[in-house]
């Protein structure tokens, strides 16, 4: 009488027998470079031996190929994002992984399409950076796609504002803006323009609100705070500064720019119009990109720990799954040469 065929043992069976997650069992049996605690490794190997589990060669090759961490960003061309990506790459390599990058320009449909494609390639983790990720985007389809990816053993980390239940690292953009606004108020500036970028971006709107609050708290009259919306780029700052100069500066003693690139563009625009920085107008930014310390005059700014956030995102991505973690990183005011005190 022929023997009955032995049921196929799956990775899920091994994980259940060992009392570990599927992701942990996969790392042990798939030859991953990621470290697993010796206790868990021993339990997985014992369960696999007891169940006579064999690893399919092609599946193992696929798992080894999945030592990638996929970064999905709005825009990869900005200096601040360059600092984040460089830190991610260094941290990933130290952990035996590597980073791939995709840009979506912040479009939800493109984000969804990119995540679906990446999910089919089975990266170890997805790191998403954007001004804001919300659970109800695209009717919840984006959240559903990310949740399915995590259920399959992947990790999701978000760098930016989100209400989704994933690991997340955010920047205190409001606090950074408030710090810059308070500094200008404390140094005697009483008529200030805010180069605010565009209303739709959560990051820049939070910074703009912080600017205004810091100024008001320092005694600047609301009527003397002028908000100027512009493109978030060097050209946007340049054009906003030229327009302000053509209006005779409207009595403005200072400009708070939503980031360093806009601030540097504004300094160029004032220079082209014959307005001296900081003699005629003070200029500040936010981010502290490398160029901020190289331009003339050197830019006063609020330094955000961009590299630290990038490295932490990779540490989150490489760590064992658990309850979602939230990390908020704060900025630090750096006073340089583009500002000077105003006296009554």
UniProtKB/TrEMBL annotation:
Any one GO molecular-function label of the UniProt entry: transcription cis-regulatory region binding
Domain of life of the source: Bacteria
Protein name: LacI family transcriptional regulator
Pfam family, one: Peripla_BP_3
Record's keyword annotation contains Ubl conjugation: no
SUPFAM superfamilies given in the database record: lambda repressor-like DNA-binding domains (SSF47413), Periplasmic binding protein-like I (SSF53822)
Signal peptide: none
Residue ranges of domain HTH lacI-type in the record: 9-64
UniProt keyword annotation of Membrane present: no
Listed InterPro entries: HTH_LacI, LacI/GalR-like_sensor, Lambda_DNA-bd_dom_sf, Peripla_BP_I
Keywords annotated in UniProt: DNA-binding, Transcription, Transcription regulation
């Amino acid at each position: 009488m022929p023997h009955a065929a032995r049921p196929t043992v799956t990775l899920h069976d091994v994980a259940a027998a060992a009392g570990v997650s599927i992701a942990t069992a996969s790392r042990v049996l798939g030859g991953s470079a990621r470290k697993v605690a010796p206790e868990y490794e021993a339990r997985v190997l014992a369960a696999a031996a007891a169940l006579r589990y064999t690893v399919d060669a092609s599946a193992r090759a696929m798992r080894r190929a999945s030592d990638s961490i996929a970064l999905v960003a709005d825009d990869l061309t900005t200096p601040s994002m360059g600092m984040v990506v460089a830190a991610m790459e260094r941290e990933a390599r130290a952990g035996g992984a590597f980073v791939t990058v995709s840009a979506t320009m912040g479009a939800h449909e493109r984000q969804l399409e990119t995540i679906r494609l990446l999910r089919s390639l089975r990266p170890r983790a997805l790191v998403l950076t954007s001004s804001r990720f919300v659970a109800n985007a695209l009717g919840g389809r984006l959240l559903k796609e990310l949740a399915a990816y995590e259920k399959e053993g992947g990790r999701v980390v978000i760098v930016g504002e989100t209400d989704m239940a994933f690991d997340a690292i955010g920047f205190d953009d409001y606090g950074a803006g408030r710090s810059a606004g308070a500094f200008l108020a404390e140094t005697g500036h009483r008529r200030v323009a805010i180069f605010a970028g565009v209303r739709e971006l959560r990051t820049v709107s939070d910074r703009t609100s912080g600017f205004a609050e810091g100024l008001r708290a320092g005694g600047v009259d609301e009527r003397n705070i002028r908000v100027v919306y512009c493109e978030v780029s060097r050209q946007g700052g340049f054009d906003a500064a030229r327009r302000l100069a053509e209006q005779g500066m409207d009595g403005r003693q200072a400009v708070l720019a939503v980031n360093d690139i806009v601030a540097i563009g504004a300094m160029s625009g004032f220079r082209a119009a014959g307005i001296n920085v900081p003699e005629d107008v003070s200029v500040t930014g936010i981010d502290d990109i490398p160029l901020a310390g190289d331009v003339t005059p050197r830019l006063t700014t609020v330094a955000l720990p961009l590299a630290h956030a990038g490295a932490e995102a990779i540490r989150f991505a490489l760590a064992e799954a658990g309850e979602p973690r939230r990390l908020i990183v704060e900025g630090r005011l750096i006073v340089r040469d583009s500002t000077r005190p105003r006296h009554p």
